[in-house]
Specification:
Elements: H1 15-34, E1 38-39, E2 45-47, H2 48-55, H3 60-65, E3 68-70, E4 76-79, H4 84-93, E5 103-112, E6 124-133, H5 138-154, E7 161-166, H6 170-185, H7 193-201, H8 212-218, H9 230-245, E8 251-252, E9 264-271, E10 280-286, H10 290-293, E11 301-307, H11 308-317, E12 330-334, H12 337-352, E13 357-359, H13 366-376, E14 380-384, H14 386-390, E15 393-398, E16 404-408, H15 412-419
Helix pairs in contact: 5-9
């Protein structure tokens, strides 16, 4: 075990990356709030049964990927592998269904899955997602898809593909499962070992297999669209009509089922073709039975989740990440231990006005402190020397051109404000 290396499938965010990460989160929140969604923050871990019931016991997440532990009270707890089940639990616990007929929530935070790390896929990863609970109209499906599409466009991504399908309601989906099982029974030996098990336990999951051999076999099975009931046909037609009405292009993908058992009717993914195999930026759909399955009222829901790591990678590949100033705006150099007290007071005043300020060590030489100031990337240096301070003055050095001038301490704040604006919350230096 190497204690100086992060655990496999995890990573550190360095200060410059963290600034970009904060910008992404702020941009995401702004769009979601504009659509009327309120932020919810749920615990990092939940009772294991919530995910078993909510996600589905035969899904890869529950069977293979969850981080589950037993606490000192003998309770089974699981680090959340996705966000929807936790949001639904909170919706039920706090009786949000009694406050409004439609509840619109979003979340941003870390999730955990024990899977093989690869490009765009980690064991601790971050997601944001939205959940609209209580609305059964196809308008809700279209709004959620449009929201994801518009969010990516506002971040500068335009080369996107929306893959769209319907998995029907429980009634017509049951007929399709029977047809799928019948069609594959004769060729079951050609399937991978996982899909042979799925054929017995959850046939619809076969459509999600990435094995080339299985994909070839599955390409010959009938489409779920041939088994949709009248209501499901109408619902899906309305969703596509609404998207067409606002000029959002989509691609019908009859084999798209998503990897979670709670989906009903509409399912979708938004694809970025530059990411290779792990190319889905987000995925989601309708889950009309999930709230009732988790112990709440029989209310419909629809939503999506998006990986922030993949979004970061996509923005980076497309040159859409902004640059931020990571260093201080001003660096204060006290030339002596006694003047360090003065420097500390000036630094405090400037920081309280919103400036980013660093201080040098008064015990070190001017040359050593200037070297540190230059390395910090500060645009301005305030030098407090004995001679200057006897006259209650300081020396301001402009690092860009090396020029410097003396300033009275009494008017220091006013003079500095003329040269540089308080930074406050970070904003990009440059944005493509």
């Amino acid at each position: 075990m190497n204690l100086t290396t992060a655990p496999r499938g995890t990573f550190d965010l360095m200060p410059q990356q963290a600034l970009v990460w904060q910008w992404m989160e702020s941009s995401i929140r702004a769009v979601l709030l504009s659509y009327g969604y309120g932020e919810i923050r749920t615990p990092i871990f939940e009772h294991t049964e919530l995910f078993q019931r909510g996600i589905g016991e035969t899904t890869d997440i529950v069977e293979k990927e969850m981080y589950t532990l037993t606490d000192k009270g003998g309770r089974s707890l699981t680090l959340r592998p996705e966000g929807t089940a936790s949001v639904v639990r909170a919706y039920i616990q706090h009786k949000l269904y009694g406050q409004s007929p439609v509840t619109k929530l979003f979340y941003i935070g870390p999730m955990f899955r024990q899977e093989r790390p690869q490009a765009g896929r980690f064991r601790q990863f971050h997601q944001f997602g939205v959940e609209m609970i209580g609305e059964e109209s196809p308008v809700a499906d279209a709004e959620v898809i449009l929201l994801a599409h518009d969010l990516y466009c506002q971040l500068g991504l335009t080369e996107l593909e929306i893959h769209l399908n319907t998995v029907g309601c429980p009634q017509c989906r049951q007929e399709y499962k029977a047809a799928l099982t019948s069609a594959l029974a004769a060729v079951a030996e050609q399937l991978c070992s996982t899909c042979r098990l799925r054929l017995v336990r959850n046939p619809l999951r076969l459509l999600d297999c990435k094995s080339p051999v299985c994909q070839e076999v599955i390409s010959r099975v009938p489409s779920i669209h041939n088994y949709l009931c009248t209501d499901c046909h109408h619902h899906f037609d309305q969703v596509t009509t609404l998207l067409e009405q606002v000029g959002v292009k989509y691609k019908l993908s009859p084999k798209l089922v998503r990897g979670l058992d709670y989906y009903t009717r509409t399912v979708f993914e938004i694809i970025n073709t530059d990411l290779g195999a792990q190319n889905a930026l987000c995925g989601g759909g309708r889950y009309d039975g999930l709230v009732a399955e988790c112990g709440g009222p029989a209310v419909p829901g629809v939503g999506f989740a998006s990986g922030i790591e993949r979004l970061y990678t996509t923005l980076e590949q497309n040159g859409k990440l902004p640059e931020f100033a990571c260093g201080p705006q001003l660096y204060i150099l006290p030339l002596g231990e006694e003047l360090a007290v003065v420097a500390f007071e000036i630094a405090t005043d400037l920081r309280r006005q919103g400036f980013s300020v660093e201080m040098g060590n008064g015990t070190k030489s001017l040359k050593a402190q200037m070297k540190a100031a230059h390395k910090s990337g500060a645009g301005f240096v305030l030098i407090i020397g004995e001679e200057e301070w006897r006259e209650r003055q300081v020396t301001l050095k402009i690092m860009a051109d090396g020029s410097q001038k003396r300033l009275p301490a009494s008017g220091l704040m006013e003079e500095i404000t003329k040269l540089v604006s308080p930074r406050g919350p970070q904003v990009p230096l440059r944005e493509e």
